[in-house]
Amino acid sequence: MSPLRPIRLALDRWLFRLSSPERLPLTFGQRRIYVLPTGAGYAFAVALVVMLIASINYNLSLGYGLVFLLFGLGVVSMFHAFRNLLRLSVTHVRGEPVFAGEPARFSFTVRNESTLPRHALLLASREARSSTWSVDAGSVQEVSLDHPTHQRGWVSPGRLTLETRYPLGLVRAWSVFIPEARCLVYPVPEPLPPPLPESGSHDAGVRSAGDGDDDFAGLRAHRDSDSPRHVAWKVIARDGPMMTKRFAANEEGDCELDWQALPPGLDTEQRVARMTAWVLAATAAGRRFTMRLPGGTIGPASGDGHSRACLARLATFGLGGTAHKRAED
């Protein structure tokens, strides 16, 4: 970390009054927008000073006119840059869960309620920058910003800058804000976990009538989601109703993912990684499972919703007050 970074953060908090995340919607009023020349703007100003000195030295009337014309152009550029941000609003921020190591994508909804389109806008954090975008008059625009993740838990985008150099690139207008938003980061699963543990129930391995691909077990009414290869075409050929073939499948019993049953040599992060891998494996196999952690049990259940609930619990397990991390920390 740069030795000047704490000073910059303290200056930001004092200058922009950024002490805590702000609730949305957030509107950028005139007190929040700052304007300064860019590098090209400073060069432009130096060139105007040189031209003015030359015009005074040689008493060039056309030189005076050109200098004042270009100076007026710079002032107008400053006004347009400021107006390009004025009254824009950030109304929503959404972050979908990701696994640690994957970028957390925050999607921002920016609303322009004025009658003027806004051009050449840029959203940036300390870690990433969006591409240049625009928002039409009276419309909204979705803007995505990727934030790197390194460990499980909650992560927020931290300090963000909305800026523009429209229309000539001579002036930079910007505003700083910290949205009240966060994204859940799942733990990284163990690469080669052992097989799923069984619950020891007497139902494991029992064959039951289902929709598998083993022995034929009869017919049932057709559903729209059924595969065409399971349709009883011979019945239809005899002017019968549309039916679907049923097959006997090997129905595996429930499995239990028990934190206390893991080998004692594993530390907390290794246990979390193994439990994560088992949750993903059980979900992929369509198995019902129960996850037992110190302090609570989830399940038995199956499906994507149950999987997400288990992964969310593992993502924040044992983190306590450090689970919510800001990008600037």
TrEMBL record:
Keywords: Membrane, Transmembrane, Transmembrane helix. The chain crosses the membrane at residues 33-56, 62-82. The keyword Transmembrane applies. It comes from the Bacteria. The keyword Transmembrane helix applies. PANTHER family: SLR1927 PROTEIN (PTHR34351:SF1), SLR1927 PROTEIN-RELATED (PTHR34351). This is DUF58 domain-containing protein. It comes from Azoarcus taiwanensis. The lineage of its organism: Bacteria, Pseudomonadati, Pseudomonadota, Betaproteobacteria, Rhodocyclales.
